[in-house]
Each structure stands twice: as C-alpha cells, then as structure tokens.
C-alpha cells in the first residue's frame, strides 16, 4: 500500500554504520516506495578497496554516484528511498541532477563513538577502522532533515514521516 500520493525521492545519507539501510527499508515499507540500497551499485573494485581498509577517492566514487543518480532519475514516476553516504556537497549535487520530482535529504547524524560501537557488531564489507576517514570527509548538509540516530529506528522513521508528509 502506498501512503505517499505524489512520487518523491528520499536520499538517506550519513557515514557508514549510521543506520541508512535500516531506516531506508523501514521508510520504504511505511511509504510504499521502492527501496534502493546504494551499496549494491558499488563496482567490485570499490568493495575490494574498502574491504581492504583503503578509503575511496573521489575518482573511485564518481561512477558509483552517477549510477545512483541514474537509478533515482528512473524512479521519478513512482519515487524511491535510496541509501548513499553522500558525504560531500558535490556528491549530493551529482545524486540530485536531473530529478524533477520532490526530493528530501535525510541525514542520519551520530557521534563517532556510537557509530564505531555499532560497526563492531555488524557484518559489512567496509572495515570499521575506515570510519574516521568518513567523518573527516563529511560535509554536513544544510539542506537536509537531520535526525539523531541515538533514537530507536521506529521513532526516527516517525519523525521523518512528520517532516515529509
């Protein structure tokens, strides 16, 4: 069942371990929008690099960001909830290019210690030691709905829904 009558694209952003996939999946189910896991679009070379503990460069990220943008553009007819770290302003600009429908940036914000603790408890191709490099690269968005990740997932989703509906 679709709760959101007009299509929209929701970009769920933040550093690795901030809960992007969890929140995006919950929002997708609640709003009846397609879920797009941004990590699924990384080329193998990016995954190998991150798995080996090497941070991605901008050069590594461009093809991934452009691929995600094309997925978002293709979802304009029905909308979607997409995860992507979107750490820098210029990354967000690439992601949002050519999208003619309403978009929202949802920034899942948390402190290093909380996120590091979470990362140690999960399985992911990105090594938790690279978390510092993500915090160093992060340019906090001015145009986003900022959500404190210390809240429960359910409460976070309810707060976001109040902001976007």
Q: What is the H/E string? A: EHEHHEHEHHEH
CATH topology value: Rossmann fold
Shape: globular
Distance between the termini: 16 Å
Identify the strand order in the major beta sheet.
2-3-1-4-5
- Helicity, as a percent range: 40-55%
Second CATH tier, the architecture? 3-Layer(aba) Sandwich
- Give the CATH class: Alpha Beta
Largest sheet: 5 strands, parallel
Please explain how this structure is put together:
Helix content is 44%, strand content 15%. The protein is of the alpha/beta class. It has a single domain (8-164), classed as Rossmann fold, CATH 3.40.50.300. A five-stranded parallel beta sheet has the order 2-3-1-4-5, sandwiched between helices. The mean pLDDT is 91.
What is the topological layout?
Elements: E1 8-13, H1 20-31, E2 34-36, H2 44-51, H3 58-74, E3 80-83, H4 89-96, E4 102-109, H5 112-120, H6 131-137, E5 145-148, H7 153-164
Parallel strand pairs: 1-3, 1-4, 2-3, 4-5
Short description:
By secondary structure, the protein is α/β, with parallel strands linked by helices.
Spell out the key features of this protein.
globular, Rossmann fold, alpha/beta, five-stranded parallel sheet, about 160 residues
